[in-house]
Amino acid sequence: MVASLVGDPARANMLTALMNGRALTASELAQEAGITPQTASSHLAKLEAGGLVEPEKQGRHRYYRLTDDDVAGVLEGLAGLAARTGHMRVRTGPKDPALRRARICYDHLAGDLGVQMLDSLRERNLVRQKKQDIELTAEGERFLAKHLQISPDMLAHPRRPVCKACLDWSERRHHLAGTLGAAMMQRFAELKWAARDATPGSRVVNFTRTGEKQFAALFGNGKD
Amino acid sequence: MVASLVGDPARANMLTALMNGRALTASELAQEAGITPQTASSHLAKLEAGGLVEPEKQGRHRYYRLTDDDVAGVLEGLAGLAARTGHMRVRTGPKDPALRRARICYDHLAGDLGVQMLDSLRERNLVRQKKQDIELTAEGERFLAKHLQISPDMLAHPRRPVCKACLDWSERRHHLAGTLGAAMMQRFAELKWAARDATPGSRVVNFTRTGEKQFAALFGNGKD
DNA sequence: ACGATGCTTCGGCTAACATCGAAGCATGAA
DNA sequence: TTCATGCTTCGATGTTAGCCGAAGCATCGT
Questions:
Q1: Measured between beta carbons, which residues in chain B are less than 8 angstroms from residue A84?
Q2: Are residues A119 and A209 in the same domain?
Q3: B92 or A131: which carries more pLDDT confidence?
Q4: Does the pLDDT of residue A216 top 60, yes or no?
Q5: Do A87 and B50 touch (CB under 8 A)?
Q6: I need a surface site. Which of A149, A198, A203, A215 has the fewest CB within 10 A?
């Protein structure tokens, strides 16, 4: 049955990651859902059998996308019902809470802190966001230069946007991706504010005590 | 999450039993699902917590009904997706053939007749359909004005499309939604061709004898 | 050819949850 | 009151399915 496919948290995470209409590879989806590639493979096979996603082979990658707009429509409907009861997902993937707090998404910061950072940037007009698209404002450029020593020319890249909104699977909100997102994460590492967990393959990002303080000073929302 | 609620077979059976809009007691639902009352009670509590059904106490019975038409709509969508992959649940009950024949989906006509109508419109170039999107042709506008006294300006709405394809759960095909779908259903009612079933909450649409004839004359496919 | 990368299959472990028997509350009827 | 009916709660059981490690293909890059 279709509903049971969507019912599983890991699969639901994958599907919502696909809701923007773009196709993602199996491993990207695994990351989005916070599970290993093996598990993701099993899930994707089921989703495919259920007609919810369609694969497209490209080299050694398999890109998955939602089958069509009917699927997207039904998913939206379900999300609508869920939102109505305030029954928004609390129960995320199987992994530890540290992963929810701060983690690497490709090469930029994700998790609670990642979302918080974008929120802060947006609130203070350092970036302007329209759906998926984010652009850096003049104030934003000054801010980056002053506090993080990041200059606009460091962010230029032929095939990658400077800013981009990336859907956060644990928070269900956007965090900052693109070359800027990557540059900021790299800067945090250089400043010894944070570092990827030592465990090989782990996506957890550990903040140092001073790093957490500095981060909160720049992007805090007063909650912690 | 809502989807996992619908995902369980026993709960899905209960929900489909409620799809006709009538309210059923807990024990009736248990029987529909083929489980004991204890188990049903647990399921119903979850469905209620998820906002899918609402209870109504009456004496020592508890009547359950679907919360509203939004829920019914989403369930239709899910059933539509399921039907598409051939993974149809057998449970759809020969109990209510009337529901399959003609019913209300939000505010427009669904079921066999709804699908038949859109087929006919498409075949005669009164509408043009591209996936989800449907647009009314010039001939279509003339047709509506002549036979149903529906003019284009009656269909304008700031936030709702005039035409839209809606997946039908009993047939595995599209029927016509949008303001046009609603307007046509309303017109059928005004012309006394059809009326919603008198049973409170029922979604069955009953056609009068003359109504059926007129409808067949306009949208018939020769099969009945 | 060789190794690296992306994805899949297999096997075993574990947690979640549907299920039912038995007992506990209600409500309605005698 | 006493009994019967409808439903719920509790406790125990068993199956399901998600999860990951290890190994197996396939494809790309050198």
A1: 51, 70
A2: yes
A3: A131
A4: yes
A5: yes
A6: A198
